[in-house]
Amino acid sequence: MSMCFMKYCALSTFISSVIYNGLMKTRITLWLLVFLCFGVFFQCVSVFLLPSSVAAVTFELPERTFSMVVEEDGSALVEETVTWLLKDPFRYVTWRVEYPSEVDIEDLQVAVLQGPNLTPEINYVMNRHNVVSLELWFAPRSPSSSGQGVYVNVPKEGQIVQVKFSYYLRNIMMECNDFSQLFVKFIGEGTAVKTDKLVVMIAFPSVFGEPSSVYVHPLGLKKEVTKGLQNERYVFHYVFEQVPSNTYVEGRFVFPRLLGTGTNYKNSVLSLADVEEIEREYTSIYQRTKMLGLFYPILLFVIFLGIYLLYGRERKIKYDALYERDLPTQDPPELVNAIVSRVCREPDNDGFSAAVLDMVRKGHLSFIEKSGEVVGLKLIDDDTSRPYLSGALEAIANKEGEIIFSRLEKTFKKKSLVDKFWDNLTKWEESVTVLAQKRKYFNSTGNTIAKTVAVVGGIALPIIMLTASTNTDFPLMDARTFMMAGMGVSFIMALIVLFMNRAVFSHWTEEGLLYVKQWQALRRYLTDFTLLSQNPPQALAMWDELLVYGTALGVAKQTLKNLRQLYPTAPPETPVAGTLYVRPFIVDKLNGIPTTALLSMGGGKSGIRGGGGFGSGASVGGGAGGSSVGAG
Question: What is the pTM of this model?
Answer without folding.
Answer: 0.69
